[in-house]
Amino acid sequence: MKTYKIAVIAGDGIGPEVTGSAVSVLKRAGEVEGFGLEFTECDAGGCAIDKYGIPLPESTLLTCKASDAVLLGAVGGPKWDSVEPSKRPERALLGLRSGLGLYSNLRPALMFKELSSASPLKNVDSIDLLIVRELTGGIYFGRHGRSDSSELLSDGSVKGLTAFDTEEYSTAEITRILKEGFRYAMGRNKKLTVVDKANVLETSRLWREIAESLKPSYPEVQVDYLYVDNCSMQLINRPSTFDVIVTSNMFGDILSDEAGMITGSIGMLPSASLGAPGTPGMYEPVHGSAPDIAGTGKANPLAAILSASMLLRWSLGETEASDRIEKAVRDTLADGFRTSDIKSSDEDKIVDTDGMTQEVIRRL
Ligand code: NAD
User: Fold this and answer.
1) 44, 93, 40, 43: which is closest to 67 by C-alpha?
2) Per-residue pLDDT, 257
3) Least confident span in 135-139, 305-309, 350-354
4) Which residues line ligand 1 (CB under 6 A)?
5) How far is the CA of 214 from the centre of ligand 1 (A)?
6) pTM of the predicted model as reported, rounded to 2 decimal places
């Protein structure tokens, strides 16, 4: 029997609760589909700071590198808010992304029809789009710093401190992520929207030039361009018309939260971070560690469970097991089971984290 190695980073807050659910679902899916899974637990985030004084121990990165895929819960929380910036729990995420070479972040925004009343939008019956976000370049990783000046300005004030963050993208980085966008569009409805700010940003103009040069290699894909401000409006106005959106690190960060929210709850949204073929991908819910509900049993485990489904599809190639989990989630929702964040009617059967997990497992 084929056995896969999965590194599990449960993290902080509700991380261990929802990752526990995802692991139980993965185990059952493996039993049903006939493959084995070997889980290795590792520390990262606040719990690693408490144990080792750093957010990402070398041993965690080594275990992840030696695995077929990584399943992550969430890191961070108020306990570590006063830790100096270079040692904060969230630094573990950056370390994992760069250490594993994860340059492409996939965030599907899928509205389950059973949850349409939980969407803040009216009269939207289907949303099924995929945001492909560049993950290791752009303004988050560009040169940044501060300079001080005692220059006197015309109004008599002193200029003082200036802070700067630079957006930089190379042809190689842009080409790599745009090709991912085209590839995913080919596997879906063959529509690709490149989102940028080409009216003002030089980096965006380079993105457009490279997208134009790649178009002939994907003649079936219909490409259009949207400025990010317009895209944020159109996601509200006509979300059903999008298929694949490809964009830079910061624009993708912001738009994917918006796209996620219009589908219902943040507790439903999975994500994958992928690198070159053959390297382990990392799968995690989009939400954070939700310290306000940690330990109460209120956490919705479906984002973590759907992340596990993505792990099976994109890193292990176990598409049938992945489909089986998605169907079990749909069936569970269709049968009226809801955690409190997605409750929309008095007829809903309210369950806690464990209850939702068991209902999904029962339907596998
Ligand atoms: P959050 O996503 O943790 O919580 C936002 C709101 O959504 C809260 O009200 C929370 O209760 C709710 N929520 C989140 N997940 C839920 C779920 N599965 N079920 C039901 N409700 C859910 O965002 P935040 O409060 O801004 O951040 C809390 C901590 O998480 C911070 O330390 C932040 O830095 C960290 N964080 C980590 C990640 C990550 O690990 N990838 C991502 C985002 C935030």
Assistant:
1) 40
2) 86
3) 135-139
4) 14, 18, 74-77, 90, 93, 266-267, 284, 287-293, 299-300, 303, 341
5) 37
6) 0.91
